[in-house]
Write a structure and sequence with these properties.
heterodimer, A: alpha/beta, Rossmann fold, 8-stranded mixed beta sheet, 14% strand, B: mainly alpha, Helix Hairpins, two-stranded antiparallel sheet, 2 strands, 50% helix, 7% strand
Chain lengths: 312, 122
């Protein structure tokens, strides 16, 4: 089965990751495409609330503890045709610190789900759990807002992803001593990543080439949410451009989702936004992004970094 | 290819194709100015003030070159030859205490032309 795993993540809380995940899922399902939404925000799950669904069992916690044998069993039907949901666990303390072998089992089962579209709604921050889910997906979408705090955390999130990709490759090729060197250099200035690769290329060209190629396969997308004017459209473009130049990654800018006060009203009414506001500018922007990600040949050809998580 | 910002060519710097029209270059220039303007939120937490100034200077240089068809042609040729491009500072250069016109034809060529005019079978 041709399966696409979408991950919606970002460095800052409140940027609208769950909103984007829920409404992308609703849009794809409305086009008669089967979708499984997974609330992988292990620390603060609330994707079900955005869909107007009350928390119930089975959920992700039941799968992780083994109460439900497969992830397929934890994906419950929703009031929306073709859309299933794996709810986040209420047992937050347990699930936020999920053990490594459980995470591997979850990643394996995500790849085996019987649905052409699997959307992961990730939590805030740069924990290894969040990063590994983000890196396993294609496409990985970073949601940000125009505030400087949000942009600062977006760069931090991207840097963390880059370091995680490189660390996994270093572990795989047993060149772990390079990791500390990278950490030391990366703190210095914005062009430190270039400096790290330059010195690596001079000392060991083959490893330098392997790591640089690994970095170039990390190709996230950017969405500027809650945009209030044309300057925010340009800001998104600028962030993607700066990331390309300074973090050496191939970042695609998907565009903006305009700010809409109806989104907060929908939340308060515990109703999903998309079905009731199909003609709004935000819904149109979401549709356009979904089409680009689902159909564009560019994204069909894109492959995420081949990360192999160690079994330990 | 792994490059420093200082080594990006003008097209990479403005994020335009090499076949970009003048309008596209103008738009890319405006976008680059807004990215690297003083206090730009897009640089927050990643790019220092010194680096910003440096990139802005190069963006100006890139626009001045690409907007002029003659300079652009010369630059494109230099890119094709992989030769480093040095923007011309002035049409004259000072040499041995006197001003010389750079584009004056070489003397050897002038003599050869004169010889061809007056000598039937050189």
């Amino acid at each position: 089965m041709d399966r696409r795993i979408w991950a919606i993540g970002g460095g800052k809380g409140g940027t609208g990751k769950s909103f984007v995940a829920a409404n992308l899922g609703l849009h794809l399902a409305s086009l008669d495409r089967e979708v499984v939404l997974i609330d992988a925000d292990l620390g603060a799950p609330n994707l079900h609330t955005l869909l107007g669904i009350k928390p119930s069992h089975p959920d992700l916690g039941d799968f992780l503890t083994g109460a439900v044998p497969s992830l397929e069993g934890a994906a419950v039907e929703t009031p929306y045709r073709k859309l299933r949901l794996v709810k986040g666990s209420e047992n937050i303390l347990f699930i936020a610190n999920v053990a490594h072998y459980r995470k591997l089992r979850l990643l394996r089962q995500i790849r085996q789900l019987q649905a052409p579209n699997v959307i992961l709604d990730l939590g805030t921050g740069s924990s290894f759990n969040t990063l590994d889910f983000f890196l396993s997906a294609n496409p990985g979408v970073v949601v940000t807002t125009p505030e400087p705090t949000s942009i600062e955390n977006t760069y931090l999130f991207l840097k963390s992803c880059i370091m995680r990709v490189l660390k996994l490759y270093m572990d795989h090729y047993k060149i772990r001593d390079l990791h500390q060197k990278m950490l030391d250099q990366i703190e210095k200035n914005s062009q430190s990543l270039y400096g790290f690769f330059r010195s690596l290329m001079e000392s060991d060209r083959s490893y330098g080439t392997i790591l640089y190629r690994a970095l170039r396969t990390f190709r996230p997308c950017l969405v500027m949410n809650k945009a209030r004017g044309p300057e925010d459209v340009q800001l998104g473009r600028s962030v993607a451009d700066v990331a390309r130049k300074y973090l050496l990654i191939d970042m695609k800018y998907l565009g903006v989702i305009p700010f809409d006060p109806d989104i907060a009203d929908s939340l308060r009414a515990l109703r999903p936004y998309y079905p009731d506001h199909r003609n709004s500018a935000a819904a149109k922007a979401l549709r356009q992004m979904a089409e680009e990600l689902a159909y564009s040949i560019e994204f069909t050809l894109r492959t995420p970094p081949e990360i192999r998580l160690p079994d330990a | 290819m792994l490059k420093r910002i200082e080594d990006w060519n003008y097209y990479e710097l403005l994020s335009v194709e090499r076949t970009a029209s003048q309008d596209e270059i103008w738009e890319a220039y405006q976008a680059a100015l807004s990215t690297y303007q003083n206090g730009s939120p897009a640089l927050y937490g990643l790019v220092s003030e010194d680096e910003r100034g440096l990139v802005l200077e190069r963006i100006q240089e890139a626009f001045q070159t690409l907007r002029d068809p003659d300079k652009r042609k010369e630059y494109d040729l230099a890119l094709l030859r992989h030769a480093p491009y040095v923007p011309p500072k002035a049409p004259f250069r000072r040499s041995a205490g006197k001003l010389m016109i750079e584009e004056a034809p070489p003397r050897k060529g002038l003599w050869a032309r004169l010889k061809r005019l007056f000598v039937k079978n050189p």
